[in-house]
Amino acid sequence: MATREAQPTTERTWEDVCNDPTLQDLPYKIETNAYGQIVMSPTHLKHGAFQSTIATQLMNCTSDGRVVTEAAVETEDGIKVADVAWFSSARWKQVHDDYAASIAPEICVEVLSPTNTEAEMEAKRALYFEAGAEEVWLCDHEGTLSFYDASGARDTSRQVPSFPAQIES
Prior knowledge:
Blueprint: H1 8-19, E1 28-32, E2 38-42, H2 45-61, E3 66-75, E4 78-87, H3 89-95, E5 107-111, H4 118-130, E6 135-139, E7 145-149, E8 152-154
Parallel strand pairs: 5-6
Antiparallel strand pairs: 1-2, 3-4, 4-5, 6-7, 7-8
Pfam families: Uma2
InterPro entries: Nuclease_put_TT1808, Restrct_endonuc-II-like, Uma2
Domain Putative restriction endonuclease: 28-143
């Protein structure tokens, strides 16, 4: 589990983004790149439905830790926002007061948008693993989940083996 020093410039930029009232009700997911520039991706109503279903099921399948939606994570390429995340209690204690987690949650879940490419998601998985994630899950447009650890694809989650590989929106 790698920990990194907080990047003050990026953190200040992310704090500014979080506190900017003009960015509060946008129909976009906001992240930043390595230069602190805002990157926005449009989302679909189904995206939110998958996100809430995954969060609810994660809460039901885990007895410890914290499930968070829209979890901002510091990466080498700026702030990335996992649609759903699971932090162990110990890791949550380290980051719960931060605008962006300096160490990734153990599980980062991305609900794919129509504009996401395979190369983009492979790069994002690598960023989450570099930041300390133990698993990254991807949910496609049909509700099929793919589970990954640092060594590659898995049939099921090691952290939450009872989590279904198919969900409904």
